[in-house]
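TODO from last week: model SMODS-associated NUDIX domain-containing protein.
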Amino acid sequence: MATIIFWLFVGLILISFSVFTEPNDFLANGTTYLGWVLFIIQLSYNKSDKFNIMINKLNHYIFNIGSYTSVEIKYKVNTNIEIFHDSAERFYNKFEDQVEIFKKVSNCRYSIELDKLKMDLFFDEDTNEIFLEFRETGIGYRDTLHYLEHDVQEVVESFTEIINPIFKDYYLNIRFGKSNPFYGFYLKKLSKEEVVNYHVSIKNSKSFIEIDEKHLNLRSSTQQDFILSAKKYLAITTIN
């Protein structure tokens, strides 16, 4: 709706400008002008989601609007608990100059804090999977992109070299603020209390996305797909 109002406003400005500057031309071609305005409104309505994403991405980037995000990397490995501990020590040695906290919480988990990152390292002995979990942050859009593309990626690449996994998956969790941007036209007429259950699953060539009332969860198998999808979905979720 906001997109339609925007284009309608632009159309009215153009028509008003034409009336005052070239009144004879407007009388001769007024129907054409009005037709273009109606066409733009119809196009905006049909493509409102794409327009919304495009405008919001620009808005988020310019004003650095934030969202609540956390990241998890799941590694499938052939290892045991002793090798896991050895890998954790090698990780510590790699980032020793940045480490603020490196604490063994349990036999299968480490709590780690670097200069810019807070994370947990966990080993699941039943499934032979290692989880590198970056804790939730509430920072701006540009800061989040830098966080994912540089800070997180540096750690992920270094740890991947250490453990040499069979494969890995990237997970991004976005926690919505006051409103869920995916509710759509009809659900937006309801209060949050009236929405009993909401769950949508989306699969495309780059990622698998699940959306519920309060979160968006995104899974990708490659860093490139992960970043491309994160840029898109971060742009329509805010901290407000």
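Done. DSSP finds seven helices and nine strands in the chain.
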